[in-house]
Amino acid sequence: MYKPIEIADGIYSVGCRDWDIRDFHGYSTYEGTTYNAFLVLGEKNILIDTVKEKFCDELLSNISQIIDPKKIDILISNHTEMDHSGAIPRVMHKIGENKPLYCSKMGAKNLKSHFNRDFNFQVVGSGDELKIGNRTFSFLETRMLHWPDSMFTYLVEDAILFSSDAFGQHYSGDMFFDDQIGDAIMSHAKKYYANILLHFSPRVQALLKDVAKMNLKINMICPDHGIIWRENPSKIIEAYDKWSRQEPSKKVVVIFDSMWESTAKMARSITNGIESKDVSVRLMNTRKWHRSDIMTEIIDAGAIAVGSPTLNNGIFPVIADVMTYVKGLRPQNKIAAAFGSYGWSGEAVKILNKDFSEMKWDIIDEGVKVQYVPNEDDLNRCFDLGIKIAKKLKKKLS
Length: 398
Ligand SMILES: Cc1cc2nc3c(=O)[nH]c(=O)nc-3n(C[C@H](O)[C@H](O)[C@H](O)COP(=O)(O)O)c2cc1C
Description:
Layout: E1 5-8, E2 11-13, E3 16-18, E4 23-24, E5 27-28, E6 33-35, E7 38-40, E8 45-48, H1 56-64, E9 72-76, H2 82-85, H3 88-95, E10 100-103, H4 105-115, E11 120-123, E12 129-132, E13 135-141, E14 151-155, E15 160-164, H5 178-181, H6 184-197, H7 201-214, E16 220-223, H8 233-245, E17 249-256, H9 262-275, E18 280-285, H10 291-298, E19 301-307, E20 310-311, E21 314-315, H11 317-329, E22 335-342, H12 348-358, E23 362-363, E24 368-371, H13 376-397
Parallel strand pairs: 8-9, 9-10, 10-11, 15-16, 17-18, 17-19, 19-22, 22-23, 22-24
Antiparallel strand pairs: 1-2, 2-7, 3-6, 4-5, 7-8, 12-13, 13-14, 14-15, 20-21
Helix pairs in contact: 6-8, 6-10, 7-8, 9-13
The structure holds flavin mononucleotide (FMN).
């Protein structure tokens, strides 16, 4: 940033924007991301989280515009992943190697594993508090949201939740708050949830219930990526509640790949069949759509159809990539059907059905297989499969 932003009295956002990044551990970030870090001034000066190693100079320069970094007394690390911890060794070197580093028990273990050294760890768990002057930092472990070390730091008097990766978005721009960017941020937040947190949805539900019971006042949510939620923090909490419930909607995603257009023709007929029953549909060619965009469409879809030609007795490699990725993120509550063209052995549909059953998706048809190029009858069978998917979905939702 060209200069740090004071987000509340004596509290500054001092992190960095990564305008260039496009591949974030396999997730496509068309608009880059930010690595947020926060400086809280007071009787003791506290830095919450750091940035990716290569942005360390920028972080230190941002801090220097407010105080001499040597005057930082305490570092809080909410999450060990390198985009937030990468700069820790250099930051500690700058502020003083023996200054206390607050983190969870798993945080201490994981920071050691990352940097192969000890810091002056002060291990904290849920409910522990650090009182400094007129400020209270309260810690809440959020294990597996999304790493074992993850935790939140809640600043009691200011009612600010530093939420680590939760509630984040991969977005980098000239807007820093929800009231500046408006609803445009929600697609980034949804993509982030679908690709980073979806498989932990039961834990998200449990956490939201725990936080509701705690009756925390939340004026602001400061995640480690993207914009800060200050106008309406409950908007992202409500969105997390909705996404983590994994409720199906009247929407089908048709995913396919094709070498010679046969599976593509089948995919289009299935799509037409779905649409003929007034069900919304997204047709996604895996050669044109990134796996993380496909995943974002899947999260609220009620049904998924996947098509692959048979290649060397298996499914097409790009479809295998997408299916491996989707399986890991465990989307629930889906109706499913497979399809594909083949030449002689035709294993693809069977393999896709196995993938569906591993995810406990409801396979509503044995799938449509077509030898080589589909004729009119074959395309009618595909159209009928589309109708069947749409009808089953409507019935399920009624
Ligand atoms: C390199 C290569 C390997 C193939 N291997 C198989 C195979 O193992 N079993 C099979 O049934 N068909 C195989 N096929 C045939 C394709 O599945 C068939 O051409 C199909 O119609 C392609 O569908 P598409 O037009 O959607 O790509 C192979 C085709 C190619 C080009």
